[in-house]
Design a protein that fits this description.
The chain is of the alpha+beta class and 137 residues long. The protein is built from 3 helices and 9 strands. Strands 1, 2, 3, 4, 5, 6, 7, 8 and 9 form a 9-stranded mixed sheet that branches.
């Protein structure tokens, strides 16, 4: 019996740990209070912006309100975009509630998370409970 419980524990622990990482630590409006922290942030992307002549070819995903009154920006640099994303995928995130995971940095007094791979951003189906997520391919 003890061996079965130990085996069950070893099987379920990774599932529990994984499910704990699927929840929001903070909302986008709280991001400004967490500079330097690695967190899961949930919020709605309200604006996509891809400047034409900016070094590094970034794409900015703006949360909360439109720039410059935004609550958080997720940035995908051009080299990462080419490897990990597509125009259609980034457009899919627009107007959706998403979870982004990463370290919050400060740029001109505003919080920013740099997205380095697709696993750092997921669309939330039910934002209130953030229990069910989908990751488009």
């Amino acid at each position: 019996m003890k061996a079965r419980l130990h085996f069950l524990f070893l099987i379920l622990l990774p599932v529990y740990v994984f499910s704990q990482n699927n929840h929001c630590d903070i909302t986008d409006s709280e991001a400004k209070l967490h500079f330097g922290e690695e967190v899961a942030v949930c919020g709605k992307i309200v604006q996509l912006y891809k400047p034409k002549y900016t070094k590094g070819n970034p794409i900015f995903l703006t949360f909360g309100r439109h720039y410059p009154d935004h609550t958080l920006t997720a940035v995908i640099w051009g080299d990462i975009f080419t490897k990990e994303f597509s125009e259609a995928l980034v457009k899919y995130y627009f107007s959706k509630n998403v979870l982004v995971f990463g370290t919050i940095k400060e740029y001109q007094g505003k919080p920013v998370i740099t997205i380095k791979n697709k696993s750092q951003i997921e669309v939330l189906i039910n934002f209130e409970e953030d229990a069910v997520k989908i990751t488009p391919k």
